[in-house]
Here is the input.
Amino acid sequence: MRTVNADYDPVEVTPLHADEVAAMRAAALDAVAAADDLGALQGVRRAHAGDRSPLALANREIGALPPEARKQAGARVGAARRDVAAALRQREEVLLDQQEARILVDEVVDVTVPYDRDPVGARHPISTLQERICDVFVAMGWEVAEGPEVEAEWLNFDALNIGPDHPTRTLQDTFWLDPSDAHIVLRTHTSPVQARTMLTQAPPIYVICPGRTFRTDELDATHTPVFHQVEGLAVDVGLTMGHLKGTLDHFAQAMFGTGIDTRFRPSYFPFTEPSAEVDLRCFVCRGAEPEIDSCRTCRGEGWIEWGGCGVVNPRVLVACGIDPTVHTGFAFGMGVDRTLMFRHGVADMRDIVEGDVRFTAAFGLGV
Here is the structure.
């Protein structure tokens, strides 16, 4: 016959006695206090607060207790686990402070100690070359003129005698900005700066116009949709192609050394008449026999195409408010990127624009 066992103590059937829980807690707190760095503390955390720690395993046993014993055992184990977690947080804060203090001592830098290194910075060679070109013309008495990169269609095309049906106005050549009826473009050349100068300044005018320009070209070894030009404009009484030739010869020698001259080949540009392509005498073989036959730079021609030039078209002068019966002028334009490639043997234009510091560091602070 079954009867109630009055002597049965449900707490006694498990190892979750108060003294056992206290022993687990004490062992964990002693281990936390003994941890002398963050790595050791991490090991203590796994051993005494992880999923396989004694207190975590004891917490799993609570569910096996009779209902009368669960509340007391749960309270004991929960309080012990909270104490251990709090001790871990406090010890971690102390060890972090100690680590930061040790770093400040170990990694201190005495800025007064003499050093034997002189790190040299670098500027982009396009910027320094543009400044060098400007210096050449400022030394001749010219002025430097700049203008906006977002330009009115009239200044970019109409003022320069580029008709409404000219192919350069199409989307295949020009970046047009929305809305289309605003007639705004990303300038395709720096010639609008020349037009702005003639509209605001009376002759004599001698300006050099460097700047960034935009055309819808694919990026490859010889083309880029964003490139740099330098254009020159002179408007005065009695200017001729002879003055233009002398100016470009001086410019060429300033860029590529003495003995380098230029030649003109007939061409056509809407804003100049007559117009010419400017060829540069090869700065490698200098067009001399027998070196010219094996020259890879000019490919045996002795000359390299450099840019365009000509006498300012009278229609451009009229559009900008200058009397062509009194004043004449000449203009020219060269690619700064192309000039840089010539001067320093850069084979791929992508090296100029991709921003690799190894490319710019080779030029230092000047070109």
Remarks:
- Residues 67-106 form the longest helix (40 residues).
- Strands lie at 143-144, 150-152, 184-186, 205-214, 226-236, 262-269, 272-281, 303-312, 328-335.
- Residues 96 and 116 are 36 Å apart (CA to CA).
